[in-house]
Amino acid sequence: SARLLTGLPVAKKLRADTARNIKELAGTGVVPKLAVVLATDNESTAWYVRSIVRQAAEAAVHCDVVDLGADAGQWQLQEALEALALDHTVHGIILQTPLPAGVDAAVLAALIPVHKDIDGANPESLGRLAAGLPAYAATTAQAAVEVLEHYQVPLAGEHVTVIGRSMVVGKPLAQLLLARDATVTTCHSRTRDLASHTKASSVVVVAAGRAGLLTGADLNEDSVVVDVGTNVDEAGRLIGDVHADSVLPVAKALSPVPGGVGTVTTSLLMLRTSQAALESLVASAQPA
Ligand code: NAD
């Protein structure tokens, strides 16, 4: 039965990397700071933001939550982001979704300077990624790759199928995998015969938001499966996109939900904030 690729050991490694960066920053006067811009009263968003605040405190990363309220308008959000973009004490900016109806999310995301865009929300970050230039990939996409790399799953030359083509997971993930020399197939809701692609792959990453989408019949005995999906079942429990009962006996490895990719994302945000803080030092040391 499948080996479980759990997220906790990956998160622990990322936390150790963050601690090393924080140590390097000690004495420079620079304290890594993350700003989370929020304009919703969505309960699961509030829960996620609380977990960011908690992990920031544990990591010694300063965290400012800029809560503009669920009725914030475009202009208010724009003003807040522009101020954070200019604020030299802020190294990372997260624009939390969902945003109020009628707000233009793409215009707002484009206001986050690429070097502070630690959640890869600015379309320019995704473009840079595709062009092979330095940029932060959307955190969830990177978290899936961190899980694969931590468990030393071969990617170079391997056929990897990504299910989902969103800007937060599928597209950046395909770029990260290409950069690791994988042969990448991106599937989506209009793909015909999904199983023909997944069966022919050694790695399948599923990020569709459809409970039970991927079953054992879609895989082979060498399949490594990363489940990015988060769904809630009738009993109110968190479940992924993988039909675990049929996949576990067939696949070689599976990242579980909960306890897989989702466990890694917040640690990655802290690591990136500390990295952005270090890079701000290097940038300010350069002659104008
Ligand atoms: P999305 O709705 O924007 O995109 C879903 C993608 O899946 C689309 O590209 C769509 O074409 C594809 N898809 C839908 N049904 C399909 C089907 N039957 N067959 C093949 N492809 C199909 O969602 P998203 O924002 O990319 O998120 C995807 C999933 O990942 C969701 O469950 C979301 O909750 C989860 N997620 C988890 C984390 C985390 O931290 N664990 C973070 C972000 C998103």
Short key terms for the protein model shown above:
alpha/beta, Rossmann fold, three-stranded parallel β-sheet, 10 helices, 11 strands, 41% helix, methylenetetrahydrofolate dehydrogenase (NADP+) activity, purine biosynthesis, NADP
Number of domains: 2
Query: What's the end-to-end separation, in Å?
Result: 58 Å
Residues in helices, as a percent range: 40-55%
The CATH topology assignment of the largest domain is Rossmann fold
Enumerate the distinct ligands: nicotinamide-adenine-dinucleotide
Main-sheet strand order equals 1-11-8-7-5-6
Q: In the CATH classification, which architecture of the largest domain applies?
A: 3-Layer(aba) Sandwich
What is the alpha-carbon Rg in Å? 19 Å
Domain Tetrahydrofolate dehydrogenase/cyclohydrolase NAD(P)-binding: 139-278
Protein name: Bifunctional protein FolD
GO molecular function, one term: methylenetetrahydrofolate dehydrogenase (NADP+) activity
Pathway: One-carbon metabolism; tetrahydrofolate interconversion
Structure summarized in a few sentences:
The chain is an alpha/beta fold. It has helices at residues 8-25, 43-59, 74-86, 105-109, 123-130, 139-150, 170-179, 194-199, 244-247, 261-285; strands at residues 3-4, 33-38, 62-67, 92-95, 159-163, 183-187, 203-206, 224-227, 231-232, 238-239, 253-255.
Describe the structure.
With 288 residues, the protein is of the alpha/beta class. It folds into 2 domains: 93 residues, Rossmann fold (3-Layer(aba) Sandwich); 124 residues, Rossmann fold (3-Layer(aba) Sandwich), CATH 3.40.50.720. It has 10 helices and 11 strands. It has a 6-stranded parallel β-sheet with strand order 1-11-8-7-5-6. The protein has a 3-stranded parallel β-sheet with strand order 3-2-4, with helices on both faces. A hairpin with a 5-residue loop joins strand 9 and strand 10. Helix 1 runs parallel beside helix 10, helix 6 crosses helix 7 and helix 6 crosses helix 10. The chain binds nicotinamide-adenine-dinucleotide. The site of nicotinamide-adenine-dinucleotide has 25 residues, from helix 10. The site of nicotinamide-adenine-dinucleotide (NAD) has 25 residues, from helix 10. Pathway: One-carbon metabolism; tetrahydrofolate interconversion. It catalyses: (6R)-5,10-methenyltetrahydrofolate + H2O = (6R)-10-formyltetrahydrofolate + H(+); (6R)-5,10-methylene-5,6,7,8-tetrahydrofolate + NADP(+) = (6R)-5,10-methenyltetrahydrofolate + NADPH. Keywords: Amino-acid biosynthesis, Histidine biosynthesis, Hydrolase, Methionine biosynthesis, Multifunctional enzyme, NADP, One-carbon metabolism, Oxidoreductase, Purine biosynthesis. GO terms for molecular function: methenyltetrahydrofolate cyclohydrolase activity; methylenetetrahydrofolate dehydrogenase (NADP+) activity.
